């Protein structure tokens, strides 16, 4: 949409909100790295779930609609939990890199960690560092004791291949060659088309919502 | 570090209270790591999802059906379900109950989900 520079209010119908949640969930599931956090979506979904629960409590007992709404609540809660769990797994897996990326984030750049995730990540790091210091390193010679977690914990593999569906037509996407002999070339991504491509190439398009990982 | 990852997995599989048989095999440092980890996780889960928080260790599988077949492992007594009716949970009795109501009791070891 067109932006006039001010902050846009997120006004979505419940259906659109759940769709946004599902899109964020799938992207997070299939992206090799931790994606931008979406606190607005989470907040609205939680509110939506509370609202639906409250409605159910007021409904007539034995009403058939109750089952259908209950199913929907369970489904949404599953997607939300799965999404947040997926993020936690990545945060724990790549913790030194995730924290480093967040610390060196420029002003105005979107955050990959929510404040709560940031606290969790810091605690995880401190906890793990303490453990390693107390256990592994006291048995090693002093010069090896300064272990850099940034170096020893592997980074996400951004070269892994992902499936995607194009939501907004993209032109002239630069593809770097895998082998030295090939030259780099550009491709156009037609709306609605599906591709198998290296994540690194299309990472910005996931963030902008131009493509959907599947 | 590999052991740590397995200990971390324990929190997600067994819950926040580790069976003694497992704790027996853990070093003091590992137990400390586990306790700090579960506390940190609990804080995070409380911060998400409104007043009660969102227990992320539940809803691990997508919901396939509203009702599930369960077997009662211990005597529990009367258990109320949504429409006001109560069920008597006696050891070895089997019931067809709403899934969301059973999850807690399954975790506590009172009920067992019968997978056909």
TrEMBL record, chain A:
Which residue intervals define the domain DNA replication complex GINS protein SLD5 C-terminal in the entry?
Answer: 156-214
Q: Where is the GINS subunit domain?
A: 64-135
Primary location: nucleus
Name the domain of life: Eukaryota
Keywords from the named record:
Chromosome, DNA replication, Nucleus
Q: What InterPro entries does the record tag this protein with?
A: GINS_A (IPR021151), GINS_bundle-like_dom_sf (IPR036224), GINS_Sld5 (IPR008591), SLD5_C (IPR031633), Sld5_GINS_A (IPR038749)
Q: Where in the cell is it found?
A: Chromosome; Nucleus
Biological-process GO terms, alphabetical: DNA-templated DNA replication; double-strand break repair via break-induced replication
- Gene3D superfamilies xrefs: 1.20.58.1030, 3.40.5.60
Example GO CC term: the record gives: GINS complex
Family as reported in the entry's similarity comment = Belongs to the GINS4/SLD5 family.
Name the record gives this protein: DNA replication complex GINS protein SLD5
Q: Which organism is it from?
A: Heliornis fulica (sungrebe)
UniProtKB/TrEMBL annotation, chain B:
Q: Which CDD domains match?
A: GINS_B_Psf1
Give the main localization category. Answer: nucleus
Q: What's the superkingdom here?
A: Eukaryota
Q: Does the keyword Nucleus apply?
A: yes
Q: Does the keyword Plastid apply?
A: no
What SUPFAM superfamilies does the record tag this protein with? GINS helical bundle-like
The residue ranges of the GINS subunit domain are 3-48
An example of a Gene Ontology cellular component annotation for this protein is: GINS complex
Question: In which compartments does the protein localize?
Answer: Nucleus
Q: Name one GO biological process term.
A: DNA strand elongation involved in mitotic DNA replication
Record key words, sorted: DNA replication, Nucleus
In terms of InterPro entries, this protein maps to: GINS_A, GINS_bundle-like_dom_sf, GINS_Psf1, PSF1_C
The residue ranges of the DNA replication complex GINS protein PSF1 C-terminal domain are: 64-115
Described function:
Required for correct functioning of the GINS complex, a complex that plays an essential role in the initiation of DNA replication, and progression of DNA replication forks. GINS complex seems to bind preferentially to single-stranded DNA.
Its family remark reads: Belongs to the GINS1/PSF1 family.
Q: How does it assemble?
A: Component of the GINS complex.
Record's protein name: DNA replication complex GINS protein PSF1
Taxonomy of origin reads: Eukaryota, Metazoa, Chordata, Craniata, Vertebrata
């Amino acid at each position: 949409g067109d932006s006039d520079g001010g902050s846009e209010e997120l006004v979505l119908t419940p259906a659109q909100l759940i769709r946004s949640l599902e899109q964020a969930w799938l992207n997070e599931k299939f992206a090799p790295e931790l994606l931008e956090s979406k606190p607005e979506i989470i907040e609205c979904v939680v509110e939506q779930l509370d609202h639906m629960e409250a409605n159910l409590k007021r409904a007539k007992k034995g009403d058939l609609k109750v089952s259908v709404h209950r199913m929907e609540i369970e489904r949404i809660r599953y997607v939300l939990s799965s999404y947040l769990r997926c993020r936690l797994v990545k945060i724990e897996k790549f913790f030194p890199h995730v924290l480093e990326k967040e610390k060196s984030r420029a002003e105005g750049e979107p955050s990959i960690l929510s404040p709560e995730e940031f606290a969790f990540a810091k605690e995880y790091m401190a906890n793990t560092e303490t453990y390693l210091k107390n256990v592994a390193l006291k048995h090693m010679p002093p010069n090896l004791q300064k272990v850099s977690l940034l170096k020893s914990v592997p980074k996400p593999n951004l070269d892994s291949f992902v499936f995607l569906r194009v939501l907004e037509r993209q032109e002239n996407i630069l593809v770097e060659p895998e082998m030295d002999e090939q030259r780099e070339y550009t491709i156009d991504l037609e709306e609605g088309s599906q591709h198998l491509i290296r994540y690194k190439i299309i990472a910005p398009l996931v963030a902008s919502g131009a493509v959907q990982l599947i | 570090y590999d052991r740590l990852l397995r200990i971390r997995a324990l929190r997600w599989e067994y819950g926040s209270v580790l069976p003694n048989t497992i704790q027996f095999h853990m070093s003091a440092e590992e137990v400390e790591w586990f306790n700090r980890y579960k506390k940190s996780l609990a804080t995070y889960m409380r911060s998400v999802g409104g007043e009660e928080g969102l227990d992320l260790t539940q809803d691990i599988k997508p919901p396939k059906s509203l009702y599930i077949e369960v077997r009662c492992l211990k005597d529990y007594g009367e258990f109320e379900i949504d429409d006001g009716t109560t069920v008597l949970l006696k050891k070895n009795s089997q019931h067809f109950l709403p899934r969301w109501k059973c999850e807690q009791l399954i975790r506590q070891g009172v009920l067992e989900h019968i997978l056909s």
